[in-house]
Amino acid sequence: MAAGAVYTRLYIEGNEYFMTLKKAQAQTQEWAKDTTKNVNTVGRDFANLARSVIGITAAFQTIKKTVSEGINFNKFVAEQTAAFGVMMKSTDAAKAKIQELYTFAVESPLTFKETVSASKQLLAYGFSAESLVKNMEMLGTVAKATGHSLDDIAYVYGTLKTQNRAYSRDLMQFAMRGIPIYDELAKVMGVTTQQIKKLTEQGAVGFEQVEKAFKNMTSEGGRFTGMMDAYMKTLSGQLSMLGDIAQQSAGKLASGITSAMTGGLGGIMDALGDSGSTLTNIGTDLGMIASALINIAEAAIRLAPAIVLIVKTLIAGKILKMMT
After folding, report:
1. CB-based contact 120:83 (threshold 8 Å)
2. Which residues on neighbouring strands pair with residue 165, listed in sequence order?
């Protein structure tokens, strides 16, 4: 074969080789673009899925928290109603009193739980059920004015009533809590503060005088008059009110769920009639489904990175297979 023919053939074959190589390179680049696009799409899809799962999980956690708070509220009310019922010798009267204390608490800067707790103390110390709300308003005013807890003030005040007289240590406890008990007793008894100390040692200062002193401090013209109203206008007072309302609302929600699941409140079951058992089963099933969904959502969040890696690996394997 002539040299020219050889060169011509080499040129043609070489050109074909380079054209084939260039075409393969172009196809590889196109596959790479598609792969990157697919990986990015998969990444976005999984990111959106993760955000959705997190949102669903957060919603379930919020519902779970609300129901839990409602159950705790109902538990507290049930326990306090039982205690009040024993001391008042009537469950119905106890329920009515608890509701009365709740109404008072919502309209004051005091929380429902601290109001009921302090009221139970006073009831145990021998105060009448009828006097509880008035005493809560009086002692609550003093507690807000001095910065001490209502339970603490109620404890000192209640123990003094059981003694029916004031000892020096009792008045000292009031004074240490910022309560101007010596000045107020001096006004009540028409003597000086020094004489109050001496009269106390002699047993001449009784609970009646201390009670009068507290009423004078908190009634119109008294040193702490208007304290509750002033606190109610503060952020703390407003949050206290909203907190009590939210807890009772959660309690009602939890009460309804509990009733549906356990066949509780007779009134609801009577209204539902034969559907009561069906609703109970639905409630049970929904509870199981909700629990399962929460577990699935939590597992999906934990496994999302691994799933993305697996998908990327599968795509890369497909590319290698196409190239071979």
Report:
1. yes
2. 206
Taking a C-beta distance cutoff of 8 angstroms, is the pair 317, 38 a contact? no
Rounded Cα distance between 174 and 148, Å, is 11
pLDDT in tens, 101-130: 999 999 999 999 999 999 999 999 999 999
Q: What tokens does 227 get?
A: 């304290």
Is 133:122 a contact under the CB 8 Å cutoff? no
Smallest Cα–Cα separation from 315: which of 50, 33, 49? 33
Long-range contacts of 170-175 (CB under 8 A, 24+ apart): 170/210, 171/196, 171/197, 171/200, 171/205
Render pLDDT for 262-308 as a digit per residue (tens, 0 to 9): 455 455 445 545 544 554 555 555 556 556 555 655 555 565 565 55
Which of the 8 DSSP states describes residue 131? Answer: G
Q: Is the dihedral of CA 237, 241, 242, 243 positive or negative?
A: positive
Is residue 145 a contact partner of residue 227, using CB atoms and an 8 Å limit? yes
d(C-alpha 93, C-alpha 290), whole Å? 39
DSSP secondary structure letter of residue 120: H
Band the pLDDT of 57: cuts 50, 70, 90: low
**Distance between CA atoms of 192 and 186, rounded to whole angstroms?**
5
Which residues does residue 206 pair with via DSSP β-bridges, in sequence order? 165
Strands (E), the chain: none
Token duo for residue 120: 């139970």
Q: Are 125 and 161 a contacting pair, CB within 8 Å?
A: yes
Whole-model pTM? Answer: 0.60
41's enclosing H/E stretch is helix 3-88
User: Model confidence over 191-203: pLDDT tens digits?
Assistant: 999 999 999 999 9
Q: Which tokens go with 17?
A: 């080789």
* Residue from 319, 321, 315 nearest 31 by CA: 319
CA dist list (Å): 84 to 78, 100, 207, 247:
10, 13, 24, 20
Query: Would you say 184 and 191 are in contact if contact means Cβ atoms under 8 Å apart?
Result: no
